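Ligand-bound model needed. F0G.
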Amino acid sequence: MPKHKEPFNFHPKTIIEPFKIKAVEPLGFTTYQERLQILKKAHYNLFNVRAEHVLFDFLTDSGTGAMSAEQWAGIMRGDESYAGARSYYAFRDAVHGLTGLPHVIPVHQGRAAERILFSFVGGKGRTVVSNSHFDTTRANVEHSGAEAVDLPMRDALDFAKPGPFKGNMDTAALKAFIKERGAKNIPLCVMTVTNNSLGGQPVSMANLRETYAICRANGIQVFLDIARFAENAYFIKLREKGYADKPVREIAREMFRYSDGCMMSSKKDALVNIGGFLALKDSVWAEKARQMLILGEGFVTYGGLAGRDLEALAIGLDEVLDEKYLQYRLRSVEYLGNGLRKLGVPIVEPPGGHAVYVDAKRFLPHIPPHKFPAQALACALYAEAGIRSVEIGTLMFGRKDEDGKFLAAPMELVRLAMPRRVYTQSHIDFVLEAFAHLARGKSKIRGLKVVWAPAALAHFTAKLGPA
Ligand code: F0G
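Prediction:
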């Protein structure tokens, strides 16, 4: 057989959804008048809106994907034995096969892996460095008493400027930081692939390799936060020199060579609705993690999951590395990003692997940060079209300083995170029409004010009203 056998006898431009649909769910249709009432009752906080009142839900790509027929078959095959279940071994072998890491510990979701790890790696006086900690990772580091420091490459915060690997660590800053803080105070470096907090941007293999070499030379362990590892691996194939002809599975394996362990939220790139794991080399750390696991999650062969969850997870880890799937996945996010750009809607450039981030600061310049422009845009998008997104701006990250002075967040973004294998191209075309409508009437979008907010993680429960 020829090596590069083409699938078709022509060159299609359309990248199709590489699946057909076996079970369907109705979309939540509501009227404009109903949504105005729903928004008011939800205090202009989309976390308070019932999912059945949402037409397209881009709140998150976490746990919202569709499983395959094979995964549903795995659900039926799940072994629910308390200890030593066959499903655990299927899961363990899948994780080991992918990562090469000897100790594999199941948990119920990503943040459980973080809580367990930082319970003994963190603590007062210690610092964890990262290209960018995800919110829960940062919260778990800080909860342990340690400090979480982000060292992203400089361009990452220039949202209008495209670049192939804007998820990278600033390795010069890393070296300087280690020198200043002292390597003995830094037990761990976390590389988040892709970098969710800064636009779902990928990290290059060269950057993973260099970061690992720096950390190794200083006795610092490197863990990958691999929630979206397959998307990152496919970006490397598309964008990094020397990887175009490598199977994405091999690229993923190479990523793990530049690490001592990983944390996984399986709700993303393991294509399941719940689950996670911690995998690592260090036997002493692994033993400590297992003790914590038993304390909070469950026995070492199920870790808070049912056997059926482990079975579906093992299958998902394999399916996610299918290149037809990954091509469709990145292409569909890019399709949304390109469409928005054409409408003149400013986005974080380039579109990420799992989401497009609309830059509300540039889209709604008439709304100042203290009137929550990104939240105002998210609410308008829901009111006009029934589309749910999430604010990453002053509602999420705004603070007050010691004198009670208001401090805005550095960004005002609206994230449209794409669930995996759920929506089709016509759905995205509808979203683009909704944005075209919003863009025409954007000067009419008004700011919001906070009526009530709790002390921490305000964005989940805060109550707002028109400013
Ligand atoms: N790490 C990254 C990079 C994440 O994006 C998430 C979750 C976690 C860890 C925590 O995993 O939710 O399974 O406990 N991100 C979701 C999101 C919530 O919407 O981006 P979890």
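The chain has 17 helices and 16 strands.
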